[in-house]
């Protein structure tokens, strides 16, 4: 039998502190308890706590200044991609606007990495999309395929920053997509996109692929809003 590897004490402490911040137990701009007290609350040693706090500080969750209490930062304004990744892992703590904001960012990013992917690797993209012609008609298959496509396009763009950003949502993306692809209209919309994108790749039409992607991603955001309404009705 395979067992999950237990989390190291400092990692567990880090996760508990992030949960406390997101839950509002440690509000933005509030001060953390003194080191001794906080270590006792978490059931860890002070050196272990310091290690966890240093990681949280480097990611933008907290501000450590010698001789002063540790402050909870406004992580939306002072955090970095590590903060974004941690928030994305906690689906039950996502702000109501998080998904729409994320999809809005995709509208800005995806046309750029799609254009670059076609410019650098049009035949590779076209070859990859051949398997999308007979994509099984299930939400899980579409969710997995859509994630793999965007990830592959980001890699083919030759700009690793796109891939690093996407990887921050590797756990969240499939969950969102399953809800989105429950509806046949949404699956048909993406299937049409895959076909049209394949045609652009075969023509090495990078500009056309960019325009196509921007339009389709904007339409997908509107479909997501409709999906939320439909899910509410079904519930």
Briefly characterize the structure.
The protein has 235 residues and is mostly helical. The protein has helices at 9-22, 35-42, 46-59, 75-78, 81-89, 98-129, 139-156, 160-167, 172-180, 184-202, 206-234; strands at residues 62-63, 71-72.
Main features:
235 residues, mainly alpha, Arc Repressor Mutant, subunit A, Four Helix Bundle (Hemerythrin (Met), subunit A), disordered N terminus
Textual characterization of the structure:
- The chain is mostly helical and 235 residues long.
- The chain has 2 domains: 9-89, Winged helix-like DNA-binding domain superfamily/Winged helix DNA-binding domain (Arc Repressor Mutant, subunit A); 94-234, Four Helix Bundle (Hemerythrin (Met), subunit A), CATH 1.20.120.
- The chain contains 11 helices and 2 strands; from the N terminus they run H-H-H-E-E-H-H-H-H-H-H-H-H.
- The chain has helices at 9-22, 35-42, 46-59, 75-78, 81-89, 98-129, 139-156, 160-167, 172-180, 184-202, 206-234, and strands at 62-63, 71-72.
- The protein has a two-stranded antiparallel ribbon.
- Strand 1 (62-63) and strand 2 form a beta hairpin.
- Helix 6 (98-129) crosses helix 10, helix 7 (139-156) crosses helix 9 (172-180) and helix 10 packs antiparallel against helix 11 (206-234).
- The radius of gyration is 21 Å and the shape is elongated.
- Mean pLDDT is 88; it is low at 1-6.
């Amino acid at each position: 039998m395979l067992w999950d590897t237990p989390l190291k004490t400092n990692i567990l402490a880090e996760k508990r502190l992030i949960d406390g911040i997101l839950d509002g137990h440690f509000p933005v701009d509030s001060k953390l308890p003194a080191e001794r007290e906080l270590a006792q609350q978490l059931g860890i040693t002070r050196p272990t706590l310091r290690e966890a706090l240093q990681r949280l500080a480097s990611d933008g969750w907290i501000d450590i200044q010698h001789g002063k209490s540790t402050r909870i930062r406004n992580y939306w304004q002072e955090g970095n991609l590590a903060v974004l990744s941690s928030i994305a892992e906690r689906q039950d703590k996502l702000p109501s606007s998080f998904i729409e904001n994320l999809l809005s960012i995709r509208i800005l990013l995806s046309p750029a990495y799609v254009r670059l992917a076609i410019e650098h690797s049009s035949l590779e993209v076209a070859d990859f999309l051949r398997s999308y012609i007979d994509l099984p008609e299930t939400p899980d298959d579409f969710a997995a395929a859509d994630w793999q496509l965007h990830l592959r396009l980001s890699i083919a763009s030759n700009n690793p920053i796109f891939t690093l950003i996407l990887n921050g949502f590797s756990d969240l993306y499939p969950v969102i997509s399953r809800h989105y692809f429950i509806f046949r209209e949404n699956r048909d919309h993406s299937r049409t996109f895959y076909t049209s994108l394949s045609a652009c790749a075969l023509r090495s039409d990078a500009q056309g692929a960019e325009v196509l992607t921007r339009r389709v991603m904007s339409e997908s955001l509107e479909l997501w809003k409709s999906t939320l309404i439909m899910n509410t009705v079904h519930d």
